[in-house]
Amino acid sequence: MRYPGLPRALPRFLAELAVENSRDWFEAHRDAYERDWKAAGLDLIAALGPLCQAGEPRLEAVPRIGGSLKRIQRDTRFSADKAPYAPMLHLVLALPGAEKHRGMHLVVHPDRLGFGAGHYGLGPQALARFRDRVQDPEDRAALLAAAARAEAVGSRWDAPDLKRLPKGMEAEADWEHLLRRKSVILRGETAGLPDWLFTADCLAGLDRLIAAHRPLLGWLAR
């Protein structure tokens, strides 16, 4: 079955939700949510499934809310921002067995497309192994080459978590930022929403972004 693209009504729904962002407004527009957000998101994930399984490393496209489709409801318990909804369509294509900590993210905002990949929040053992791998010249070169593939489509490294190198570690200036990280993430966004998202070219366009970040995910999976 040929995938026709996301519904063109989706950006309007997201833009209006961003402005109103109340439970009363959401309930009054539940039909649009069910059709232009929920059904559209699940259909896109299902369509991406074969592409996610065809490449290396394989990614999991789970067509359910809480699977590859992040909930539109926000957890506001520990946030100063009490807006109840996230005005975005957020897909997470995770590495098998990695839950959502390692994977590819695709985020449709009202006015732009966000994308990125990596591993958020390395635990103590994973962080120690990452630092060991970074200090190996061949492994480090492979990581930087993988990052360059993602950078070619507009992704950039997140800012390092630490201001200084960990105690006892040394590095050259061109890669010392790697040792100051507790997460390994590159991300970017488009200037405006690409029209191809809403056409039969949608899968090809998203597959290009996924393919550019696959080397990074492959490095993390090893």
UniProtKB/TrEMBL annotation:
Pfam families: DUF2461. NCBIfam families: TIGR02453 family protein. It comes from Acidimangrovimonas pyrenivorans. This is TIGR02453 family protein. Coiled coil: none annotated.
